[in-house]
Amino acid sequence: MKVVEQRLRVDDQAVRTDNDCTVALAAALPTSEQARADVDPTQLHDQVVTTRPEAPQPRRSAAKTWLQAFALTARVEAQPRRLFADIVEEWAQRQPNRPALLSDDQSFTYGELTARINRYARWARSLGLHAGRTVCLLMPNGPDYLACWLGISRVGATVALINTRLVGQSLAHCIDVAQADHVILTADCLDAFETARPHLHRVPQCWSLGTGGPSGDLDATLAAFEPGPLSSAERGDVTINGRALLIYTSGTTGLPKAANVSHRRILTWGGWFAGLTNASTRDCLYDCLPLHHSVGGVAAPCSMLCAGGSVAIAEKFSASRFWDDIVRFDCTVFQYIGELCRYLLKAPASERDSRHRLRLAVGNGLRGDIWETFASRFAIPQILEFYAATESNFSLFNVEGKPGAIGRIPPVLAHRFPASIVKVDADTGSPLRSDAGLCIACAPGETGEAVGRIGGAGRDGVPFEGYTDPAETEKKILRDVFTEGDAWFRTGDLMLRDEQGYLHFVDRVGDTFRWKGENVATSEVNDAIRDCPGVLDASTYGVAVSGADGRAGMAALVVDRGFDFRTFRDHLSRRLPPYAVPAFVRLCLALEATDTFKQKKQRLIREGFDPSVVDDPLFLRDPATGDYRSIDRAVYARIVEGEIRL
Q1: Within a 10 A sphere around the Cβ of 103, how many other Cβ atoms?
Q2: Which of 24-28, 150-154, 219-223, 390-394 has the weakest average pLDDT?
Q3: Is the pLDDT of residue 57 over 80?
Q4: Hey, which end of the chain has fewer CB within 10 Å, N or C?
Q5: What is the pTM assigned to this prediction?
Q6: What counts of helices (H) and strands (E) characterise the chain?
Q7: What distances in angstroms separate CA 473 from CA 136, 256, 468, 469, 488, one per listed residue?
């Protein structure tokens, strides 16, 4: 049966929260801000109207949008043993035959998804996987990805979501950091794992999915376990406080860090996004972002599963297939990153551009210069831009749809999401301090680093769950910010607040830069480059490219006569994921450094890859072949004009 026909035929009488709930919430909420803070959210959740109107609804006000998100997250603290897998199971009881997760190769109804989750849970229990034990998941996008981590984490174990583009030492580092007892691999990830095996401190037990091999065949093993509901004894003593996932982020320096993600945050992410996107059982979200990321793998799919909707999962983004998939899966929402939107705009115009039923695009990184053009060309009724980070203790949502803004925090919610922007030194990235030793808040229009107050243990603010490495956790905490003894999370992002209170993203603090939707740590790239034959010294940084979001990687190299670009290309392809391989190379006689041997990059960044400014030889990495070729003024002009796409 076709996906659209299946979705339309399934019984649609499921309980859900929709537009009408915000009316009930608005009526129930007290008028004063203090009274609102004292309201029991659980009582409000029980008052919502749960029948979806048949007629199309007008766009909600910002206040109603926030109120709905508030209602959908109110039950988290009140029911500490209710995990996200329980939400999926509740929907399975109401609508077992409704599609939950869809793809070209595999699909699950809510009933099938719950059965698969329970099989993974029982398999994990059979291995003694509980709190403190970790399984690494190395699997491309697909419905089973979510079933796997939902099942294993349901019984207390942690699942480390590994980037499938990593190889060699970088991949080994991520597995070692997780201290994994087991690793789950699909057939197309086996070769990558073998490149990491020689570098592992301890090789976990390997389990194969879809390989058909006799050793560690997880498909056959799972089939032997019962798919029915777990007993209380099988569930164990797992609460929302337990760690469910490790999600990796490059942070501001060094190799990827593993961020702790609790069951509480999974529930909160799913609920907030469900409320802010007005998700319903009739929605289908198109997700072509990596499932090993917090947005593509948790926030996006969990928002739909929280509301009883469907998620269409693509293995990866494809501009040529994007609109065909949107129509084929009958999607009403899609998740984006800014670069994805630019790729779609650069594609040739087609009648497919607006032949869809999309009502909303939700994501981050859609800059103001293409916002309205994107919405107009593709007939997107509403765009919900947001700002968040895997390890961050606060997020921002632009529910009003102001082009170019990443969001704002309504005054009524400021006590729940205390955030600020502090002045930083442009060269060092360190916060500036007053004579009293405290940080200095930026005035509207001033650029500084965004920080979020860390709460817990009687303090206002939101907890910061940190990383597996306590030392790395401490690096992200800024103390004595506005009062002696307070603590704030450092985002590492430069922002400014306009006169209306909207925040705008400016850039990353320090050496880390964002490219192709990924954070690139220059220290990791530099280490890989310096290991290449013929390279004597290297300095890596990001440079702005006209018409592209983020910054492209560029490396200034000092080399000897043994240096060869083909060897350089092959070496980096084995050591780094594609997005981290420098797009530009500059060959220098020497690199500037301070008296303490810290590299000076500001001049290199300012000069970029313009041959009219730089006397050194410049090279561009061909996106198709990976070969480096010389940049002259004609090539530079083609890059600036967008004829050469990186």
Answers
A1: 20
A2: 24-28
A3: no
A4: N
A5: 0.80
A6: 24, 26
A7: 21, 13, 8, 6, 12
